[in-house]
Amino acid sequence: MNKSIFINLPVADLDKSIAFYAALGFEQNPQFSDETAACMVWSDAIYVMLLTHAKWKTFTSRPIPPSTASEVMLALACADREAVDRLNDAAEQNGGTADINPKQELGFMYNRNLADPDGHVWEMFWMDPAAMQG
Asked: What is the reported pTM?
């Protein structure tokens, strides 16, 4: 198996979360989805597992943090600045929150942060490929 990442997230409303991530461009993999979990695919190597709170609790006894807490920020590279903006707009229109932190325009990099309906933080960013080479 190629190296890949499966990000597991506890969600309060599975159907709402599936709709949110689908609106951002994730595709649901029905092979790894049921009434307690949904596998949402970003790329060949990036998968987000949305888990009901009951399902989450079968993996760990640690408490689910409140939606106002941030333990981790997940960053996804985008093809261009417009994609960063589209994803933040889609988040705002589908139950999430756009621009939970100030936009960052660094010339060689542009990013905006959003939160899903459960408060999980995502950084959508674009980096100038020419700047990365030199």
From this structure: 0.92
